[in-house]
Design brief:
With 365 residues, the chain is an alpha+beta fold. Helices cover 34% and strands 18% of the residues. It has helices at 7-31, 34-38, 43-63, 84-100, 110-117, 139-144, 244-254, 268-274, 299-307, 342-355; strands at residues 68-70, 130-137, 149-156, 159-171, 192-199, 204-208, 217-219, 233-235, 262-263, 280-283, 310-313, 334-338. InterPro entries: DPNP (IPR006239), Inositol_monoP_metal-BS (IPR020583), Inositol_monoP_superfamily (IPR051090), Inositol_monophosphatase-like (IPR000760), Inositol_monophosphatase_CS (IPR020550).
């Protein structure tokens, strides 16, 4: 693959996401407890977010120092006196992971790790090559021991060209049952851990999450043969993230089998429909539709679906516009399914919103 488009970037991105997944797995195993969920203690996620972002940013900045990085976190809180304990945990995790993956020979000083986290402040846009990173996508899924993802995408001139998504709790074999929330604490975790990779024009692939030379398997969206009757949703667990009631209305319009639907957190939904676990992903606006989707929540997943034979748009069928900064300010919501069925799905979304008296959401923001 050495002579292929973005071959070096592809290899480095895989290494970066693998390093981050080592961190997030360790954070869950050693820092997340039942109290993290019941008492809404977000400190394990905070540690995981900072640490994973630092690791990815370090790997990327060493290989591609001229590229910008759009990330979620800044190190401001870690630089304060109140952040001393948190900073110690973050730097320890980052150094351990970077050394394990042979990214550094010895530990980095705290100051360098904090500066590395702050590399994620790039503003995005269409005039520079940059990376978009979500270090832990699916916060609540991570805390519950459910699905979450480490998501990384490369954008060139405002277009997603490469995506890598690490899903530590997703079975590599789609026939293997997904673990229920928290089950990974007490069950055999063999077979869990899927890494999805895509480059524009080269297709989408899945591979084990560990190993530098792991075999890759091409993935394709399921052929619905012209009907949504056997199709299933991959939809959000959290009702606040998408209008699940509207999903049910759309399912009725299309005659879908809602028994096939699965709920999970994070961009793992994109990965799941890309390989045929489900068929339709809808993220429909809630409230007045003013929320602007973040580019890091959709960049890697969008290309993964497109390269697997799908189409991703907003609720009105407009292509997602990644050229306008850190958010998808020109779009509302997300609609994804196989390319040949996408126009029918968009039409059903419009019909459902008209029925609900929310047709104004179809207008451009």
């Amino acid at each position: 693959m050495s002579g292929m488009y973005l071959a070096t970037e592809r290899r480095i991105a895989i290494e970066a996401v693998q390093t981050a997944c080592t961190i997030t797995t360790k954070v869950f195993q050693h820092l997340v407890s039942s109290e993290s969920v019941t008492k809404k203690d977000k400190s394990p996620v905070t540690i995981g977010d900072y640490s994973a972002q630092a690791a990815v940013n370090y790997v990327l900045s060493r290989a591609f120092p001229q590229d910008g990085i759009v990330g979620e976190e800044t190190a401001d809180d870690l630089r304060t006196m109140e952040g001393v304990e948190l900073r110690a945990k973050v730097t320890s995790l980052v150094n351990e992971a970077l050394q394990k993956h042979e990214q550094v020979a010895g530990p980095l000083p705290d100051s360098e790790i904090l500066d590395t986290i702050d590399l994620g402040t790039y503003s995005g846009g269409a005039d520079k090559r940059f990376w978009a990173l979500d270090p832990i996508d699916g916060t609540k899924g991570f805390l519950r021991g459910g699905q979450y993802a480490v998501c990384l995408a490369l954008l060139v001139n405002g277009r997603v060209e490469l995506g890598v998504m690490g899903c530590p709790n997703l079975p590599l074999d789609p026939k293997q049952p997904k673990p229920r929330d928290g089950e990974i604490r007490d069950r055999d975790v063999s077979g869990l851990g899927a890494l999805f990779v895509c480059v524009r024009g080269q297709g989408s692939y899945v591979r084990p999450i560990c190993g530098a030379d792991a075999a890759e398997t091409p993935i394709q969206m399921r052929d619905l043969q012209g009907s949504f009757k056997s199709a299933g949703f991959c939809e959000s667990v959290e009702a606040g993230h998408s209008s699940l009631a509207t999903n049910q209305r759309i399912a009725r319009i299309l005659g879908m089998d809602t028994e096939r639907s699965v709920r999970m957190d994070s961009q793992a939904k994109y990965a799941s429909i890309a390989r045929g676990d489900g068929d339709v992903y809808l993220r429909l606006p809630v409230g007045d539709g003013s929320y602007q989707e973040k580019i890091w929540d959709h960049a890697a997943g969008t290309l993964l679906v497109e390269e697997a034979g799908g189409t991703v748009s907003d609720i009105a069928g407009r292509a997602l516009d990644f050229r306008l900064g850190r958010t998808l300010k020109a779009n509302r919501g997300v609609v994804a399914c196989s390319k040949d069925m996408h126009p029918t799905l968009v039409e059903a979304v419009a019909d459902a919103l008209h029925e609900e008296g929310r047709a104004s959401l179809l207008e451009a923001p």
